[in-house]
Amino acid sequence: MKKILIASLVLLGFASCQTQDANKKSLMTPVDYVNPYMGNISHLLVPTYPTVHLPNSMLRVYPERADYTGDMLNGLPLIVTSHRGSSAFNLSPVSGEIQQAQSIVQYSYDQEVIKPYRYQVYLDDAGVQVDYAPSSQSAVYTIEFGSDAPAHLIFNSRNGALKIKDNSVRGFQYVDKTTKVYLYAETEQTPEKSGVVKEGNTVYSETTVEGQNAAAILSFTVGTQKVNLRYGISFISEEQAKKNLEREINTYNVETIAEAGRTIWNEALGKISVESGAEEDMIVFYTSLYRCFERPVCLSEDGHYYSAFDGNIHADEGRPFYTDDWIWDTYRATHPLRILIDPKRENDMINSFLLMAQQMGDDWMPTFPEVTGDSRRMNSNHGVATVIDAYLKGVRGFDLEYAYEACRKGIEEKTLIPWTGAPAGWLDAFYKEQGYFPALKPGEKETVANVSSWEKRQPIAVTLGTAYDQWCLSLIARELGRTEEADHYLACSYNYRNVFHPETKFFHPKDKDGNFIEGLDYRYSGGLGARDYYDENNGYVYRWDVQHNIGDLVTLIGGNKSFTDALDDMFNTPLGMSKWQFYATLPDHTGNVGQFSMANEPSLHIPYLYNYAGQPWKTQKRIRVLLDQWFRNDLMGVPGDEDGGGMSAFVAFSQLGFYPVTPGSPTYNIGSPVFPYAKIDLGEGKFFEIKAINASKENKYIQSAKLNGKDHDKAWFSHEDMASGGVLEVVMGPKANKNWGTKTPPPSAVAKP
User: Fold this and answer.
1) Nearest one of 636, 634, 645 to 51, comparing CA atoms
2) Does pTM top 0.85 for this prediction?
3) What is the full DSSP assignment across 396-462?
4) 716-718 vs 667-670, strand pairing mode
5) Confidence band (pLDDT; 50, 70, 90) for 365?
């Protein structure tokens, strides 16, 4: 009887725990699942940063520290002006008598808590408790000092000017040589005295300071144990920074602003609801979705914005202006995801790109628009993909005619050389005439001035990327009725064939005489980052960089079996050397599964390519394995650089169960849904649901499917199938149905004319 009683109590306890877990889960909202610390320790390069901000807002902050593994903070942040940049301005609370003032104080810290909408930390050596919450262009701090000693706030402008009046500090900081960011801050408590910091000395007789590490100080009476501070920022003026603060925040209560931010985040993240999933999966999903809202940022302030693209202030005419978007990273999945859940904002972003092209004076589509202008980083001109992908999916509130011209000129008139905005030269003329970007032979000296000694020519990456861009351009031309131009660019989109090696079946660099470079090893030839031939990734990854015409790639490689064998070979070919040697050559090529790199954007579409060659079950298996291996709810849960949604959008899409392999083609490849149920709010009362019956860690294979109530035997569907709302219903099982989805591959480009 005692054993039965004990067993019953154990079962009751277990049931009680289950009930408590279920109740806890039912009370959680989307933002409660976000873990900003996920990926904060890097596998090799740049980690994720635990960014505190509202969706796509101008004001972003994160703790300023060398690495999460360290225990020192460099003051408190006031605004980060670019993704992964350091804070412009800085705030340092100090307690006690100041003997030698520092512009920025280093703090030991503890008890840090970060939410997307709130930051709390205890500066343990200093005995200071910090609480913070942002709005879009303003924020509020509560700073509690742990003693009755005098309390001070030191404001720093790393390169600019500050001035004090009563309880306020205002000023600016140069972000680059011409772009400034402005600050207006005020405290609720009136300081006893104020001054500036010069050469480590506090000078209370002065109220203005300018130059490197210009610092101002507000000092409060003995016994002031709490100081409340609020501030606004602007790229227009100090006065506008004050207006932004007054428009957004009329309180010093952090709790109030944090709750408002929490509501805004739940509205944004709630555009996609996932249910019945494991809690860890939901954390990974909503954290990934949160990352997709970090960039680009809205610079519109009361109907005006500063543009570094021409150095002027413009009226936004009711359409917000966005910048800070690394398009090479985000065109693949972040922009397509936004088309689904926030098409109006996507439309505003494309209009912003077109305004940038106008303001730069050359009508060239931007490639890496930032707060300071277009940095023209990486290779190719993938803004054209964001234009046509949005247009063909129904986002049409922009001038397609001008977009075509801006995209065309960005490809035709701007050089294709990576990392430069120079005009086209002889290398570009060569590409147009010969259909490929020429490589240098080993030991051959570079003679083209605009080629970076670090970034090199990247001829295969440039050839393949430009072929894809020209395919996108052909689609725009056809929409505009420019048939001759459409046919021309469609023909150009096959230029990848010119560097396809018929014997090795890899894309292989050629010299200017049309000869393949000899002695190549596709694993690690090409110097640092393989940039002599590829870019950041090796020949195994770039073997698949024909997003627009996978069907033709299947044929080139030798048909379905040869194609899937080649995919298998990539995932199973070892590094061929020690890890430290491999990563010393290819530091961006992390997250390895064989020669596949989960950590870099050109790899993202590759696991879905089995769908094109009759083995969609292998896509289903591979996607689940990659998600489980590389994206986890822990400090090392992201395998490589997370470029403001570039990689996270892949995770969000893949967990939902589909992915846009080819931006510009209004289609989606089906993978393996992680959640038994997901619902996407498409706006205007329309929803797309994904029902994955029996989905679990083990049940990752699709047994059968229905789309909008009809049997569906294709491993893809069209945007039209979901645009008006609908349901994708799949039955999942533990073993592959190797017949499902094999007959009709996803669409590729039409035959070469």
Assistant:
1) 645
2) yes
3) --S-HHHHHHHHHHHHHTB--STT--PBP-HHHHHHHHHSSPPPPPTTPPP--TTS-TTT---HHHH
4) antiparallel
5) very high
Q: Check residues 2 and 339 and name the one with the higher pLDDT.
A: 339
Residue 153 belongs to what H/E stretch?
A: strand 151-165
Q: Is the pLDDT of residue 688 over 60?
A: yes
pLDDT (tens digit, 9 = 90+) per residue, 410-430? Answer: 999 999 999 999 999 999 999
List % helix, strand, coil for the chain (3-state, nearest 5): 30, 25, 45
Rounded percentage of the chain residues whose pLDDT exceeds 90: 91
Specify the higher pLDDT residue, 21 or 110: 110
Structure confidence at residue 155 (pLDDT):
97
Structure tokens given for 496: 């990848």
The one-letter code for the residue type at 405 is: E
Integer-rounded Cα radius of gyration of the chain: 27
CA distances from 608 to 5, 8, 657, 730 (A): 53, 49, 11, 17
Residue 399 has pLDDT above 70, yes or no: yes
3-state secondary structure 156-225: EEEEEEEEEECCEEEEEEECCCCCEEEEEEEECCCCCEEEEEECCEEECCCCEEEEEEEEEEEEECCCCC
Residue 485's CB: how many other CB atoms inside 10 A?
17
Cβ 439 vs Cβ 457: under 8 Å: yes
Residues 6+ apart with CB under 8 A from 229: 91, 140, 141, 142, 143, 153, 185, 186, 187, 188, 252
Task: Give how far Cα 110 sits from Cα of 63, 73, 93, 127, Å.
Answer: 12, 10, 16, 10
The SS3 assignment for 583 reads helix
- Chain-wide mean pLDDT for the chain? 95
> Buried (b) or exposed (e) across 234-248, using 16+ Cβ within 10 A?
bbbbbebbbbbbeeb
Virtual torsion, Cα 407, 412, 418, 423, nearest 10 deg:
-110
3-state secondary structure 86-129: CEEEEEEEEECCCCCCCCCCEEECEEEEEECCEEEEEECCCCEE
Indicate the residue type of 200.
G
* Sequence-distant (≥ 6) Cβ neighbours of residue 187 within 8 angstroms: 153, 167, 168, 218, 227, 228, 229
The 3-state DSSP class for residue 589 equals coil
- CA 581 – CA 584 distance, rounded (Å): 5
